[in-house]
Amino acid sequence: EDQVTQSPEALRLQEGESSSLNCSYTVSGLRGLFWYRQDPGKGPEFLFTLYSAGEEKEKERLKATLTKKESFLHITAPKPEDSATYLCAVQVRARGSARQLTFGSGTQLTVLP
Amino acid sequence: EAGVAQSPRYKIIEKRQSVAFWCNPISGHATLYWYQQILGQGPKLLIQFQNNGVVDDSQLPKDRFSAERLKGVDSTLKIQPAKLEDSAVYLCASSARTSGGVHEQFFGPGTRLTVL
Fold this sequence. Notes:
The structure holds two protein chains of two kinds. Chain A is mainly beta.
C-alpha cells in the first residue's frame, strides 16, 4: 500500500528563520511527487511537481527537492504570509487512466513576526 | 483563467438527510476528482472521472454516496443518507496531462459539510 508521511506535524518559526519540511514515501512506481499549500478554509494550492530523484524546483522562498525515498521543502527566510499547511502527495504508475493522489497529513507552518 | 468552482461553500444538515455538492472544473480539463478531507488529514480520493466516465471509485462508499458527470463538464456529488462521520470538507479537483506525463491537479475551495 502506498504511504506518505510528513514531518514535523507542526512547525513554528521566527520570521527569517530558515527550515525544512520532510515528506517520506513508500510507493510502487512513482510518477510524480507534488507539493501543495493549503490556507484555512481554502482548497490546496499547487506549488511544485517533481518527477525523478535529484530534481529541484524553486519558487520565491520555497525550494523542493526529491530523492528516491523522500522530498524536502526548504523555506528560506520565511515571512508571516508563508504560514499555512503544506501538503505532500504522490501519484503512482497505475493501470489505465487512474491518476489519484495519495496525500500525507501535512505540516502546519506558523511564521511569527 | 478561471479556477475550479464549487458550491455551496458551507452546508449544515441533520444525520439521515441528503445533500448535494456541485463542481465546475477548469475549462478544457477532461479529468475531474472528488476528494474528502477530514480535519487534520490530507485529502482522500472518492472518485475520478475521465470525461463523463468513471475511472476509479474504489474508495466511494456506494451505499450512501453517488456522483455523476453528465456531458463531461460539471459534476455533482450526493450523500444520502448522511452520517455524523461524513462531516468533512469535500474538494473537487480537475487536471490535464503535463508534458512530463503526470496530471497536475488543481483544487476548488471546497464545501465544508457539518452533519449534526
